[in-house]
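INFO batch 0412 | record 1 of 1 | parsing
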Amino acid sequence: MESNAGGVDAFTALDAPVRSVLSKRGFTTPTEPQRRALPVLATGSNALIVAPTGTGKTETAMLPVFDALVGTDRHGISALYVTPLRALNRDMQDRLEWWGGQLDLEIDVRHGDTTQYQRTKQADDPPDVLVTTPETLQAMLTGSKLRRALSDIEHVVVDEVHELAGSKRGAQLTLALERLRALAGSFQRIGLSATVGDPDTVGRFLTGNRACETVTINAGSALDVRVRTPEITAEDEQLAGQLLTEADIASHVRVMREIIDEHESTLLFVNTRQTAEALGSRFKAVGASVGVHHGSLSKTARIDVEDRFKDGELDALLCTSSMELGIDVGHIDHVIQYSSPRQVSRLLQRVGRAGHRRNDRSTGTIITTRPDDTFEALAIADRATDGAVEPTTVHEGSLDTVANQIVGLLMGHGEIGARRAYEITTRAFPFRDLTADTFREIIRELSSNRLLWLDEDADRLEKSGGTWKYFYDNLSMIPDETTYGVEDVASGHQIGTLDERFVVNFAEPGEVFIQRGEMWRIVEIDEEEGSVTVSPIEDPGGEVPSWTGQEIPVPYAVAQDVGSLRASARQTFDAGNSRETVARWLCERYPTDEHTASEALAQIERHTEAMPDADRIVVESHGREVVLNAPFGHKINDTLGRVISALIGQRTGSSVGLETDPYRIELEVPRGISQGDIVDVLETTTPEHVAGVIELGLKRSDVLKFTLAQVAAKFGALKRWRGSSSFGRSRMLDALADTPVYEEALREVQYEELAVSETIDLLRRVQDGDVAISTVSGRTPIGTGGRSSGRELLTPENADASVVQTVKERIQDDRMLLVCLHCLDWKRTQQVKRVPDQPQCPNCDSTQIAALNPWADEVVDAVNATEKDDEQEKMTERAYRAANLVQSHGKQAVIALAARGVGPHNAARIIAKLRENEADFYRDILSQEQQYARTKAFWD
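INFO prediction complete | emitting tokens
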């Protein structure tokens, strides 16, 4: 229920002690959220407050809480402030401790890094207000002293509630709040968010379907966003050479730097960590004062760059979603979004961080890179201004979360009736429809995995030997994933890490990906060691990354608006207007300039065939490529693409290649399949069969098997799963079929990746004639426009010269064991760069010096042995061959022998090649090292 409460001075809803300190903090007049929400919260009502970042939401929630606590006799913890990020804990602590000091209230923080001393102190002498995370609340509900402290809870504030509503973390929190209610009785619940598309649903998520007032401030009404594609200038052509990139990227860097220079403090948002690193390196190259902030950086590095930006040492902070939430980095006066933000909620979260020194407007610039990007950004900016935020999809019915919380209940109670546990569980909004039969299946699965003891006759659940360890190993519903180290074969250094899911589902030797702003090809994956060996791509210009990370999905409504916008532009062209006239028409309706509009419209001007629209699919083909131009968003297109490829595959017995984006489904079909066959699938497939086709296809997919392993761990069916062996995962799939574990894994994949029910509805609309299908022979400008959509525009900096230099520096710094095979009395370990041009024994003056790995003492022992076995004979032979090479070629042979996996035979082949320069010598060494890395698994 939307509240319109409030008045001229909402601070009068607060009592004198709190009002007396408002002016000390600069609160002279209430902000709009405070004006509307304080009277509601002061009554003790549950409430959801949706307002832009920087409008005082934290104080809006906490001032009435402080007001209720001041002057009362308190023993336990009276209020919890739950935040999804530890970084927000620091901000909350700083801000709330000031109020606590003024009002004689104790404020403390508790999370995974809190010391044992501080934890004990909090249990023995509980603070009045505790700032914590959803995971730490789980642990707190199990300790006897903390349970007594929590039994006095009267208020719970959940910050960034939208961030939790769509995840298993949030589902777990709702169950924890119901467990807390069973302990403490009813308490006030307050949710805070910058953007929520469906406040009533999120309010029910927060309160467990109980009454909830909503106070919503439209962030879009204070938004001033411009969409801009930079023009390429002569200066950009010169800058492109300096940055080893293309002129269009150089123009982006130049324009963003100009915008940064025009403002005091700018946040520059990008959509991936790779782009953050790549852009960061380019800003560094041009001397811009820009810091980089993303989730892969260490906590120390993030805090350092936050503080430097806040103190004014940096002009801009280049960040990913790590800075979407309310981490305090001081006042922001402008936000740049590099490429489309993909979703209205993200644009509001990001640009909403600018302004707000009272009633300032939030200003931002979206820098776009191609027509898809521009039209999408325009549609999103338009929807944001109208407040048309995507509805929040609550993550409902996750069975592994229920399993986790049943064990949590036992940790708090020791034993509990199954009926009582079911009642507590189904009070949480995401589990309101959980059936008693499914609940009992989950209990039996937990019992079979020895995580609890089930007394069927007494309907009682009790702890078992595995309860304690399982619970503390699974405080979080964030999957426990291994990370693979990524090692550059050229330098031998680790350049970063890859998530286990990424490696298992996508990686194989030969695939290309981007990390640290550079492009790499996989040489080898070592699953036992948890490492991925890669080689830098020397000429990235012609390479397209096979996978670059998970995309932010474009919603259906945004993709539909893009389809409608394109169709309207085509109609304006068809009325006889020039591109300049259509560009002016576009500028009148959307926040952009004529150059940006004209650049995007060039594609529409060339597209004279049938135009894909919100209600029209255009199917085009060329050879074995068939493309469905379908503006339905990422998830529907991915689901529909899977259905089509599965059915065509069944029909032909051949595999079908599939790539999707929000506006296209691209298929590589077997010979003999035409676009007519694709249309036939759309028009004749029974919509009710879609779910079965999808499940059948998923059973063969790595993504389901990997998710199954993660879910099995949350059910206690697996202690730990690396997820690497296809054979093992297939056996696990068979073993867990027809269990709640399999049911949950299938549900999760469909929730996270697909849109099954929406795709069923789309097929019905196609077959009812509400969505038309047109066919086009050949490729169209729009159909081919998606080919760069998955490609990072920021090409790598490491051109061939830098790769050669890296290999050279590594080898020159390596150490080699030099042994005289003439007198057998002299040996020395020395850096390669310190080896003389012609090594010579100082004892006997012989040049028969073997260059060996520094740990090759067994080779020296073999050479010295009077009686040798077969292995020692081989070692001796290799040593003499190495010595002969050094004797003939001096230091060049030492360098070749220092390379990884290069023995005397291959070293001789490298040396024997005729070359014009030293760089070619090191190129050949690198090539041999890569060959060794690919094949070493087959060597004894």
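INFO post-check: The chain has 38 helices and 29 strands.
INFO record closed
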